[in-house]
Amino acid sequence: ARGDQRERDRQRAQARRPAAKGRDDGLTPEQRRERDAKALQEKAARKAAQATGGGGAKGAAKNAGKK
């Protein structure tokens, strides 16, 4: 009986694995690094613009009704 339980557990774990993986985007590790670096640079640029008072549309929309 115990062997059957192990087999069922293996099948359940295998069925859950693809949903938990989620990183199969078809990119090589180098491409993934480049993509992530670009995203971080863009995020840093947005934060810098916001810190200098650029704010953008998000800041203007937040403060529009607070007068």
TrEMBL record:
Coiled coil: none annotated. Belongs to the SERF family. This is Small EDRK-rich factor-like N-terminal domain-containing protein. Transmembrane segments: none annotated. Residues 1-67 are annotated as: Disordered. Residues 1-12, 21-45 have a biased composition (Basic and acidic residues). InterPro entries: SERF-like_N, SERF1/2-like. Pfam families: SERF-like_N (PF04419). Residues 1-33 form the Small EDRK-rich factor-like N-terminal domain. PANTHER family: SI:CH211-39K3.2-RELATED, SMALL EDRK-RICH FACTOR 1.
